[in-house]
Amino acid sequence: MPVKLKICGIKRREDAEYLNEFKPDFAGFVFAGAKRKIDFETAKALREILNPETKTVGVFVNEDLGFIRRLADEQVIDFVQLHGDEDNDYIKNLRTVCNLPIIKAQRIAIREDVKTYDADYYLFDTKRTGEYGGTGESFDWSVLGDVRKPFFLAGGINLGNLDEALKIATEKSAFALDISSGVETDGLKDKLKIQETVRRVRAYEY
C-alpha cells in the first residue's frame, strides 16, 4: 500500500492553499510549543480553507481534554496526535470525550524506547533531551524493528533523505510520513518543497 503523507505545522492561509494545490493526505495543526503553535480560531479558519478530503491532525502536548473535545466537536480536527507524556490512563479518559482516532507519538533513540500504548496509531520522532518533538533531526530508523500497529514516520525528513525514508517506510510497512521543517524555508512552508515532496511520495515505486 502506498505510504501516505502528512504535512505538519500549517499556520497560514498560504500553507492551506499549497496543500489544496498539491494534496497531501494530512495537514497538522500544532497546539503546543511556540514555533508553529496556533490557536483555536486560526485552526478553525484553516480547516475551512482546506480541501475537505485533507484530514486534519491536532498535535497536543499534555493538553486539557476539554480543549481537544472542543476541536473535535466543532470538526476542526479529524485525528488527535498526543506528543507529550500522555499515558494509557490519559488515552482512556480522552476516549470518553472524543471518538477521533488517536496517534501517540514516541521519541526514539534506541529500540528500547518503543513502548506500547492503547492508541490507534503511533508516530516515531527523534528523541532529544528537553524537546517534545519538532527537532528537525532524524533518528536511526532501522531501530524500529517489527511495529505491530500502523505508524507515522517522522524526524527530520526532507528532500535530501526522502528516498531513504520512503524505503524504510516501505520495509517497515509505515502508514505515513510526517514532514514539517523539511518543507520549510526560513521557518515558513515552501510551496516548491511541498510540491516536490508530494510528487516524489506519489511517484515512489512500492
Structural write-up:
This protein has about 210 residues and is α/β, with parallel strands linked by helices. About 30% of the residues lie in helices and about 20% in strands. The chain has helices at about 15-20, 40-50, 65-75, 90-95, 160-170, 190-205, and strands at about 5-10, 25-30, 55-60, 80, 100-110, 120-125, 150-155, 175-180, 185, 190. The strands form two sheets. An eight-stranded parallel beta barrel has the order 1-2-3-4-5-6-7-8. Strands 9-10 form a two-stranded antiparallel sheet. Helix 5 (about 160-170) links the parallel strand 7 (about 150-155) and strand 8. The longest helix has 13 residues, at about 190-205.
How would you summarize the topology of this molecule?
Elements: E1 4-8, H1 13-22, E2 26-30, H2 40-49, E3 55-60, H3 65-73, E4 79-82, H4 88-97, E5 102-108, E6 121-126, E7 151-153, H5 162-171, E8 176-179, E9 184-185, E10 188-189, H6 191-203
Parallel strand pairs: 1-2, 1-8, 2-3, 3-4, 4-5, 5-6, 6-7, 7-8
Antiparallel strand pairs: 9-10
Helix pairs in contact: 1-2, 1-6
Shape: globular
What summary fits the major beta sheet?
8 strands, parallel, barrel
Rounded radius of gyration (Å)? 16 Å
Query: What is the structural class?
Result: alpha/beta
Termini separation comes to 8 Å
Compute the average pLDDT.
92
